[in-house]
């Protein structure tokens, strides 16, 4: 069993690793223009599926990679943040729809706001603050009460984790690790093949976006679920995942961590506000994007030109904060990390996010046509 000093050193290692991986994530997103909202908008307006294929490729790589980690015993799938026994379908759909509308109004999701902040965009800073404050309200404030009394009460409960792999293993009576790997390959491989089959898709930026971000996701799962796992914590004598707010294995997500970042900054002197993997990830994405923007001379200060633009970013940030917490994750948290676990709630949240984004984009198109 590790002693307290060894636990502290290992926690620091996990935090530094999460920061480094997130720096890479931020740099890749800025370099490749990876964007969930942009992927949906491109497909709707021009029929271009390039950024959609980037997203699907990253999800496929992450799914297969997570399956390999489980099959080789590096991580325990049931300990994932997305391995709850409840399929929160109504929360995922409604929260996802709110998030999808919000990310269109705010010109990108939470992770994209961090990347834009790193490149000098002050509009993204406003969206970040609005999203962080509303996420905090949705976790602990007035929005949390409303959420708990409505959509969170509608769910389907299972005996084990509500993921495709666990459900298949339970139904067939098959060995769990290898069933999870088989399910990951059956879902992830078609993702990868479809993405790579796009005309002209195979080039350096697209492969960097898909393979690079998928690889970062798998590395984060390994860091949190293997390197940061201790079988017996000296204080509790129980299994623990170091540096995580949930006490479970975590990967990339950018809703709750934005609120936690604001808490850490404003209550820094409070010893209970310990630095977490999520907060380190938020800082890393901003630093990574800033480093790439400065290195390529793309750093530009940008502010609001109209009050309508300001209002859109404020409203969009609020919708993403409330929606992301309600849906149990954002376009990265559910769209990549959760999907890599084959979580039913994650797939449902993605449907809600896409539906919300499509509705918001159609509304913007309608308004534009009316103003002509």
Automatic annotation (TrEMBL):
It comes from the Bacteria. InterPro entries: Sulf_transp_TsuA/YedE. The chain crosses the membrane at residues 12-34, 55-78, 90-110, 122-143, 176-195, 207-224, 275-294, 314-336, 342-361. GO terms for cellular component: plasma membrane. It is a multi-pass membrane protein. Keywords: Cell inner membrane, Cell membrane, Membrane, Transmembrane, Transmembrane helix, Transport. Its main location: membrane. It is found in: Cell inner membrane. Belongs to the TsuA/YedE (TC 9.B.102) family. This is YeeE/YedE family protein.
